[in-house]
From TrEMBL:
GO biological process, one term: lysine biosynthetic process via aminoadipic acid
Keywords tagged on the record: Transferase
Leader sequence residues: none
Organism: Butyrivibrio proteoclasticus
Name of this chain's protein: 4'-phosphopantetheinyl transferase
Domain 4'-phosphopantetheinyl transferase intervals: 102-196
InterPro entries recorded: 4-PPantetheinyl_Trfase_dom (IPR008278), 4-PPantetheinyl_Trfase_dom_sf (IPR037143), P-Pant_transferase_sf (IPR050559)
GO molecular function: holo-[acyl-carrier-protein] synthase activity; magnesium ion binding
Top-level taxon of origin: Bacteria
Family: Belongs to the P-Pant transferase superfamily. Gsp/Sfp/HetI/AcpT family.
Gene Ontology CC terms, in alphabetical order: cytosol
Length: 215
């Protein structure tokens, strides 16, 4: 069980579509959506709810309770066989679901100022990125998603110091590699996605757009 789903919030921005999906959300998700004031944040929260609903129903899970452990990483209560992780950036929300522990991060291409680069990337990582050349913003955005996916895999968020996570930057289809975990990079238009997992099978998984899939 390895799946990735994505939603573009523009697909749910119409009032009728928004209300249709909002009505299908759990009371907990509705409360979370309502807690946001900016409409974009409401849409991203609703998109996360849609993704979770879609991913779990695909696995035959229609009734569930979400609990948080550690630094707030969500799990399904009573299910040690299903793991999921959510992320959002810009106008996209994404979920990875697996039967193994999982972390995922999505980031829209951003410009990394020199000061920020030095705060979150090690000298070795900076040298390797500069050696690769090309669009530095894409490379740094991708590298940041890799670090974020590791933080989310362990459920520690930014309590894990980014400079303490040093990655080997390689050329090829998979830009990043660590001995303990697979870091699988994917690109969707101007977004970078990294999945952190112990399962190499995610390399072959296509990202499914919830509102464009057939069937």
């Amino acid at each position: 069980m390895n799946r990735i789903y994505i939603v573009d919030i523009n697909c749910i921005s119409d009032n009728n579509v928004y209300e249709y999906w909002y009505d299908q959300m759990s009371p907990e998700r509705k409360k979370k959506i309502d807690s946001f004031k900016p409409q974009k944040n409401k849409l991203l929260s609703l998109a996360a709810g849609i993704l979770l609903k879609k991913a779990l129903e695909t696995e035959g899970i229609y009734s569930y309770e979400i609990i948080e452990k550690g630094a707030g990483k969500p799990y399904i209560k009573g299910r040690s066989d299903v793991f999921f992780n959510l992320s959002h950036s810009g106008e996209r929300a994404i979920i990875a679901v697996s039967d193994n522990e999982i972390g995922i991060d999505i980031q829209k291409k951003s410009h990394f100022e020199p000061g920020l680069v030095k705060r979150v990337f090690t000298e070795s990582e900076i040298m390797q990125v500069e050696h690769l050349g090309g669009d530095m913003d894409i490379l740094y955005t991708a590298l940041w998603t890799a670090k974020e996916s590791i933080m989310k895999y362990y459920g520690k968020g930014l309590s894990m110091e980014p400079l303490n996570i040093e990655l080997d930057v390689r050329s090829g289809s998979d830009l990043f590699y660590t001995k303990e975990l697979y870091l699988i990079r994917k690109e969707i238009s101007d977004y970078q996605v990294t999945i952190c997992t112990t399962c190499a099978g995610f390399k072959e998984i296509l990202i499914t757009d919830v509102f464009k899939e057939k069937g």
